[in-house]
Amino acid sequence: MSQPANEPMSGGIPYAVGQSSVVRIPVPGTNGLCIELRPRGHIPPSGSTSTLFFQDPSGKRHLRLDYGYNKTTKTIDYHWNQKGTHSNFGIADHTPAGQTGSTLYKAAKYFRYAGRVLVVVGVAVDVVSIVQASKPMRRASQVVAGWAGAWAGCKVVGAGGAALGTLASPAGTAIGGFGGCIIGGIGGYYGGSALAGEVYDWAEDTFFAPLPEVAAP
């Protein structure tokens, strides 16, 4: 479907979808844990073998989805490693993650990179839309407000999705968190962009009459 002539190009959807791979999505009721696709804290020289993390800012408290040797099952499998999060998720250290864990592990692994590509694409489209706009300053204000709205929407709706998903399992936490982040991000982007356009138009069309000068007594 072609885009209306008076409607600028928008990188809102790729930006909002991609940002969920880099934003820390809060998990309510866990004392600071957030969903992320990259580790925090100490990382082995060979790199982390985990792809999905529920962790605090330091990375010391975490639940992470790992693939490798499991000393509990004495085999190589997908499993959960945790430290200080058992009371939040009820998952013991080295708990096998099963087929769901395998699917989630692979999805997180690829989305970590694909998401960043989508962010770059979204930013590039928005920059082009500013350059090509008949009112570049208006479009720039829409883009900046859209990015801010996408971030806020991701945080708020993502946290709600994570809270609902936690009732099921850590996999539900991740799916709910990322899904909520994407939905909230898209809504926040277009809501913020529309509001910025309205404010710009109001400011542009508003004229303030100067007050008459009054002679000093």
Helix content: 40-55%
Number of strands: 6
- Average residue pLDDT: 92
Radius of gyration: 23 Å
Which outline best applies? elongated
Strand content: 5-15%
The DSSP helix count reads: 5
**Overall number of domains:** 1
**Major beta sheet summary:** 6 strands, antiparallel
List the strand order in the largest sheet.
1-2-3-4-5-6
Structural class: alpha+beta
CA(first)-CA(last) distance: 68 Å
Low-confidence runs (pLDDT<50, min 5 residues)?
none
Helix and strand run: HEEEEEHEHHH
Description of the structure:
With 217 residues, this protein is of the alpha+beta class. It is built from five helices and six strands; from the N terminus they run αβββββαβααα. It has a six-stranded antiparallel β-sheet. It has one domain. The chain starts with 11 loop residues before the first helix and ends in a 12-residue tail after the last helix.
Quick recap of the structure?
By secondary structure, the chain is of the alpha+beta class. Helices cover 53% and strands 14% of the residues. The protein contains 5 helices and 6 strands, in the order αβββββαβααα.
Summary tags:
single chain; 217 residues; six-stranded antiparallel beta sheet; 5 helices
How do the strands and helices of this protein lay out in sequence?
Layout: H1 12-19, E1 25-26, E2 34-36, E3 50-55, E4 62-70, E5 75-83, H2 86-89, E6 95-96, H3 98-132, H4 136-166, H5 170-205
Antiparallel strand pairs: 1-2, 2-3, 3-4, 4-5, 5-6
Helix pairs in contact: 1-3, 1-4, 1-5, 3-4, 4-5
